[in-house]
Amino acid sequence: MVITVLLVAVCGGLGSISRFLVDGLVQSRRLGEFPLGTLVVNLTGSFLLGLLAGLHAPAHTMLILGTATVGSYTTFSTWMLETHRPAEDGEHGLARQNFAISLAAGLAAVALGRLIGGWL
Questions:
Q1: How far, in Å, CA of 23 to CA of 117, rounded?
Q2: pLDDT, tens only, 45-97
Q3: What range does the domain containing 71 cover?
């Protein structure tokens, strides 16, 4: 149990640091107001979770890699805030665009990951 808690802590830290770095890198190169950094993080995380599911990873692996690492890498709350904020400012088109693109592309990323994982 102690080893599992330590692995969750370390992998969770690595996931959140990775999110910070990927989001910062993408956002520093973006044009416009669309939150592309969050989208890239959430899509790559969705793909990775789909891949783990497609590989039929054991429960312990899903806990460490899926929940701790990828779970701390992806960011549902930031996506919601970055969807709510433009709507609050009257930019309803940007809010709808962020919601729709993130949802559709996220589902597609999970499906692709599961498909590839099933092939491996």
A1: 25
A2: 999 999 999 999 999 999 999 999 999 999 999 999 999 999 999 999 999 99
A3: 2-119
